[in-house]
Amino acid sequence: MNILSLDSSESLPEIEETSKETIARAVAKRKNFAIISHPDAGKTTLTEQLLLYGGAIQQAGAVKARGEQRKVTSDWMELEKQRGISITSTVLQFEYNQKTINLLDTPGHQDFSEDTYRTLAAADNAVMLEDAAKGLEPQTRKLFEVCRMRRIPIFTFINKMDRPGQEPLALLDEIESELDLLTWAVNWPIGSGENFRGIIDRLSKEVILFTRTQRGKQSIEKKHKLNDPELFDLVEQDLLNKALEEIELLEEAGSSMDLDLIRGGELTPVFFGSAMTNFGVRSFLDNFLDMAQGPVARNSSNGPIDPMRDGFSGFVFKLQANMDPRHRDRIAFVRVCSGKFEKDMTVRHARTGKNIRLSRPQKIFGKDRSSVMDAFPGDVIGLNNPGMFSIGDTLYVGKHLEYEGIPCFSPEIFSWLRNPNPSAFKNFKKGVNQLREEGAVQILYDKDESKRDPILAAVGQLQLEVVQHRLENEYGVLTRLEPMGFQVARWVNAGWPALNEIGRVFNCKIVQDSWMRPVLLFKNEWNLNQLREDHPDLDLRNVAPVVSGVDPISL
Hints:
about 25% helix, Alpha-Beta Plaits, 14 helices, 8-stranded antiparallel β-sheet, 7-stranded antiparallel β-sheet, alpha+beta, Rossmann fold
């Protein structure tokens, strides 16, 4: 076992103090970000191109559900490869221009948005990816609100400029008017679709011309100064003049570049390009590293914890079972928040109060893993999880602290999960409990303990299909789903005493979650509003309260 549990009464051994200079250099070198987008905006393609520039891969994969296409690095799960979609998050660390970049890859499909919410809790910056033809889409708006709630700086990459799309000025206006977010275009496109010729970098005053190249290879970028007399021989005069006129309009009427507003989440730098043809990606990456904030202080029970705090601390933001099907492993993803993490160090587990020795930490890169000797704020490490960790757990050295928990959001689809084969109950139980731990789906239970079949509660139908697929392929259990007909869930904020005080309730079903908290299921919003009218003092929440110090129940 990779984690050795010690009695909580044992004192933590003295750890050799790491110099402030070493940690400061490491923190200054690190950038951490997640990409948010609507499905099919090109998120995974952009991820592959960034890895290509970082030298982490030699050829970028195409996100296609076809055997002859090279598989992408970030989509490692078998079902992702079969369907050509991203349904789980992972971590990809690479080096570029003497910086260490931690890219938190998030699911692209909206049915897995809760996994994205959890991953954003570990991010210091976010890249909002837009399709130039479609502009802002529902999933992008939803994830943007999460970033705004956390005051995460947003960098916007408008993708697919080599295809017909909306006018660039209209795309900026949509962001400003609908998201109430100021924009500053770092570069500006020359033409679009078949007439896309390149971009003008407003900071360097350079024109970078677009040359189509073999898919998956780095584009050939030809740079010219804006005052280069040969420019009109290379680009149609009308296209270049239009781009220059639009830039002049932005200079006169647009926002000003302000790094403080960017890092406060109030202004978004905007980049134009094409991830599929790998154009504009290098320009984005270079500018992002200059503008993005490094690891920042995190809120905790002791107030904001600075990355330079003496002593390691971090929190678990994701659990993943069976990344290596041969070993049936479970990995806890830990965001390092302060100090220096070192292999074999002993830390305190805040929820249980136990001391644990972390003997085999791992660096995660998609599905691949390697041993890691140390890590610094902004990094993500993988720890083998023998059922010890839950999402939101804090690990620390020194004075007690707990980072803000990661809440559960309200599901919209509910189904009984039936196991028609009693002889497979052991594997059924194991699979359900492990998938619950990693947050693949929320698990609810009937109040009647004789009805112990779990209730799967999900945001989208695909989540339920993934659970069935994984139970069959990873645990050898065939299951059956029985829809329940409910669409709304609310947690009773004051718990069972508040619910017992009002007596019998109508037009809803009372169940409990994995933490034994009461949850009310309604067939529609009308029934929910009716209960609120009947019992206005009953405090109902669409986000589950964060729990600490208590282990969840199992099947």
